[in-house]
Specification:
This protein is an alpha/beta fold. It is 53% helix and 11% strand. The chain contains ten helices and seven strands. A hairpin with a 2-residue loop joins strand 1 and strand 2. A five-stranded mixed β-sheet has the order 3-4-5-6-7. Strands 1-2 form a two-stranded antiparallel sheet.
């Protein structure tokens, strides 16, 4: 388990509250809380197992290829200098990093034009799709690469740090996917990643694609999900009302049955009293 200088457990390189404060989508926030709880409890549920399996490599791995043997790994050693605001745009051409001939600093001068376009824009979808699945591109500062080359123990620490970050991310992302009804195994197998590391080997920027799109639901999928949830809530309310009405009917029926049994008991008691008096005074007549 990863602990920071405060002794508190970290998730994706940040404290729980630091990461949660950055999440604006309610569905993603709820999924993050669930994923965090699973990690802290050491859960071995299906989502956690899938996420771990795709972030486990050769024991003592000192290279990214050894750390992630399930993937086609490309490394770019150089000084990438891209702000998070530019990186997070849907049109940031991160897909170029999957080209082995692209350098780490190739996109340092890229500047956006206009408002952030939707993920669903045709040209962006085509670029996402070209990446394919099962690939990882890593941007490594020159200073970090030198430290790793000089100290295998340090290299192992960097590999373990990125493996944990990726496992945490996948547990969260796969929890979101499960909530939207995706097949988690297929969703995980379809992902590709770009990791931009800083000089300490921490993830500075990251982009993940799956099935030809950025991970996470589109606006249309989210609206559909929310509409389905609203329908489910209405059905639950209706079902509860039916149960309440049925319970009320059962109570009324039980009261009616009780009154009936009480009236029968009274009749039986009167009959028994008359029968006993008739026997005492000799005026009982049998109907037989």
């Amino acid at each position: 388990m990863d602990f920071g200088v405060t002794g508190k457990p970290y998730y994706m390189g940040e404290s729980y509250q630091e990461r949660l404060n950055k999440i604006t989508d309610k569905t993603a926030a709820s999924a993050f809380q669930e994923a965090y709880a699973k990690k802290m409890s050491g859960s071995t549920d299906y989502i956690s197992m899938i996420s771990k399996a795709y972030s486990t490599g050769k024991p003592g791995a000192t290279t990214f290829e050894e750390a992630f043997p399930q993937y086609d790994v490309i490394t770019h050693v150089g000084n990438a200098n891209i702000s998070s605001s530019r990186w997070q745009r849907n049109d940031f051409p991160f897909w170029k990093y999957f080209d082995k001939n692209t350098s780490a600093d190739a996109l340092n001068d890229w500047m956006p034009e206009g408002a952030n376009p939707p993920q669903t824009r045709g040209d962006l979808q085509r670029n996402y799709s070209r990446i394919g699945s099962g690939r990882i591109a890593v941007l490594i500062p020159e200073s970090l690469q030198k430290k790793m080359d000089a100290d295998p123990a340090y290299a192992r620490q960097i590999m373990a740090k990125l493996q944990e970050w990726k496992e945490d991310y996948d547990r969260w992302d796969n929890t979101v996917a499960a909530g939207y009804g995706y097949n988690v195994a297929e969703h995980q197998a379809g992902k590709s990643y770009v990791f931009d590391l800083d000089e300490n080997g921490d993830v500075r920027n990251c982009t993940v694609t799956s099935s030809g799109k950025l991970t996470g639901p589109t606006e249309e999928e989210q609206r559909q999900f929310e509409a389905e949830q609203a329908k489910k809530r209405k059905r639950r309310v209706k079902y509860i009302r039916i149960l309440e009405e049925s319970a009320e009917k059962r109570k009324l029926q039980e009261r009616e049955n009780l009154r009936f049994y009480q009236s029968q008991f009274i009749k039986h008691d009167c009959f028994l009293s008359n029968f006993q008096r008739g026997q005492k005074y000799g005026n009982y007549k049998s109907t037989e």
